[in-house]
Design a protein that fits this description.
It catalyses: biotin + L-lysyl-[protein] + ATP = N(6)-biotinyl-L-lysyl-[protein] + AMP + diphosphate + H(+). This protein has 254 residues and is an alpha+beta fold. It folds into 2 domains: 198 residues, BirA Bifunctional Protein, domain 2 (2-Layer Sandwich); 45 residues, SH3 type barrels (Roll). It is 27% helix and 34% strand.
Length: 254
């Protein structure tokens, strides 16, 4: 991949850097946030210490994965970013669908294909000098999922071989354009502009799910989508409740 090629293909008007290898593109951009003056896409051909939500590891390979982070500045504090991971999921779903890969979304930050995880989203924030907030939006996308990688994960995971055959520069440019458009819309209207589209892709709509925190079941009920702030709506025996993301896991009840 070459930054100049991606920039020539993309319409987003975002600065782009490509590195051969790094530990974590999110960590790199967080460390640079104080010096940033404009949005920046950082793509790693190989990421050795990728992270998922709640500090979990994100396993990837240079041949079978695409890993990148996008630094984007928003006005206001982190509280104004409620629902941003879900909006990013909608943007990814739209772009992947246009490229021939149909996906579903799992609350709060996963992209699924045929019920298995295809992509993960990790958003971290840092206050910007002079006001506002930098959102560092990290994305890991599986392209090819070999058996040995699934064995290391200890669970099923999806791949998208069709995307693996694309030129990487073309794929990254398409994803960047979709994300930039979505982030500008989010800055103007918040998650409300994405809510209906997220619910259309909701993988577990109407399914009985459990909300688990550190092995303890906190809630159980029918998944009823999300509201316009990104909270999960759960129909329980005691009525409908709305849940913020936090560090919890959502699982379909067997």
């Amino acid at each position: 991949m070459k930054a100049a090629n991606i920039a020539a293909l993309a319409r987003a008007g975002v600065a782009i850097e490509v590195v051969a290898e790094t530990g974590s593109t999110n960590a790199d951009l967080l460390a640079r946030a104080a010096q940033l003056t404009e949005p920046l896409l950082l793509v790693a051909e190989n990421q050795t210490a990728g992270r998922g939500r709640a500090g979990r590891s994100w396993l990837s390979s240079s041949e079978g994965s695409l890993t990148f982070s996008l630094a984007w500045k928003f006005d206001g504090g982190p509280q104004a970013l409620s629902g941003l991971p879900l909006a990013v999921g909608v943007a990814l779903g739209d772009v992947l669908g246009q490229l021939g890969v149909q996906v579903q979304l799992k609350w709060p930050n996963d992209v699924l294909k045929d019920g298995d995880k295809l992509a993960g989203i990790l958003i971290e924030t840092q206050a910007a000098q002079g006001g506002g907030t930098w959102a560092i939006i990290g994305i890991g996308l599986n392209l090819i999922m070999p058996d040995e990688m699934e064995a290391r994960l200890g669970r099923g995971a999806a791949g998208a071989p069709w995307l693996a055959r694309m030129e990487r520069d073309v794929l990254v440019a398409a994803l960047l354009d979709g994300l930039a458009e979505a982030l500008r819309l989010f800055a103007r209207h918040g998650f409300g502009a994405f809510c209906a589209r997220w619910n259309l892709r909701h993988a577990w709509q109407g399914e009985t799910v459990t909300i688990i925190d550190n092995g303890t079941v906190l809630h159980e009920g029918l998944a009823a989508g999300v509201d316009d702030t990104g909270r999960l709506l759960l129909d329980t025996l005691d009525g409908r409740i709305a849940l913020l993301a936090g560090d919890v896991s959502l699982r379909v009840k067997p």
